[in-house]
Design a protein that fits this description.
With 165 residues, the chain is α+β, with helices and mostly antiparallel strands. It has helices at residues 8-13, 23-33, 51-65, 93-114, 120-129, 139-149, and strands at residues 40-43, 69-73, 78-82, 117-119, 153-157, 160-163. The protein has 2 domains: 21-82; 93-163. The longest helix is centred in the middle third of the chain and has 22 residues, at 93-114.
């Protein structure tokens, strides 16, 4: 093997499709690309391979194949299947956008009324009293993230914000 200098420009103009992959990796990419809903496949290590080394290869192959997979590893194999739904229970971006809009509206309403520090929990409590359930596993984290992104609020502490108008 010989190592020589190359330019970044040469690397960037090389088409990704022409870059070389091992036959094993290409076989894994093809298996993920051909997965059907409910189908589960497993990789079993051979020779000097380990489960610990195979798991990232499955993740890489899924990225290359453009598929979202759920990966589970036990002592002697790495299993993978197509990912369905999402962990938070919301399967669409529209639901996330609607939740964000509700949090923003309620935070602005509270901020204008109080003119004092506001916590993420204050917003959650106000939404709950209006009968709005955010439906996320960690509402404080979600509300805090929304408030941090709003120019009307300045973060003063952990999930504490000041309305600046």
């Amino acid at each position: 093997m010989k190592i020589v200098e190359a330019t970044l420009a040469d690397m960037k103009k090389t088409p990704r499709g022409r870059r070389q992959r091992s036959p094993e990796t290409q076989k894994l990419i093809d298996s993920i690309a051909g997965l059907k809903p409910g189908q589960v496949l497993a990789l079993v290590p051979e020779g000097n391979e380990t489960v610990k080394k195979l798991r990232p290869r499955v993740s890489y192959a899924a990225r290359v194949a453009g598929r979202k997979v759920r990966i589970a590893a036990d002592e002697d194999r790495v299993m993978y299947t197509l990912r369905t739904g999402s962990r938070s229970g919301s399967s669409s971006r529209a639901g996330a956008a609607a939740r964000k809009a509700k949090v923003q509206a309620k935070a602005l309403e509270l901020g204008k009324k109080r003119k004092t520090d506001l916590s993420a929990q204050d917003v959650i409590d106000a939404l709950n009293s209006d009968g709005t359930n955010l439906g996320v596993a960690r509402p404080g984290t979600m509300v805090g993230a929304v408030l941090r992104s709003m120019p009307e609020f300045e973060r003063t502490g952990s999930n504490k914000f000041k309305y600046t108008g």
